[in-house]
Amino acid sequence: MSRSSLEFLRHILDELEYLSAEAQILDLRQLQTDARAKRAVVRSLEIIGEAAKQLSEDLRARHPEVPWRALTAMRDKMIHHYFGVDYEIVWDVLATKVPGLRAQVRQVLEDEGRLEGG
């Protein structure tokens, strides 16, 4: 795997770590009313989706357990429909999807690092 793929995976993990921390201090109401939180959380999700788009099809095929397509689709929806972001869905992603996704991406990094001899 190319070095850039590892970097994109690390970017995804960094953003997932950030979102996990935010989910510990925010609730749905705060997310809906705090402009800074909205922008930060949406931006993190956009970064995750964009980084996922940069990963090779081969890497994504080796790790079908990660919902790569859902990550990129969420990014596209937020970028193209930024006036229509449903923060209840965003909150659900933070509360229910991010923890498992974090574990999956960590595992991918570990597995791919072994393939690279790292």
From TrEMBL:
GO terms for cellular component: toxin-antitoxin complex. Keywords: Hydrolase, Nuclease, Nucleotide-binding, Phosphoprotein, Toxin-antitoxin system. InterPro entries: HepT-like, HepT_RNase_toxin. GO terms for molecular function: hydrolase activity; nucleotide binding; RNA nuclease activity. PANTHER family: RNASE MJ1380-RELATED, UPF0331 PROTEIN MJ0127. This is Nucleotidyltransferase. It comes from Thioalkalivibrio nitratireducens (strain DSM 14787 / UNIQEM 213 / ALEN2).
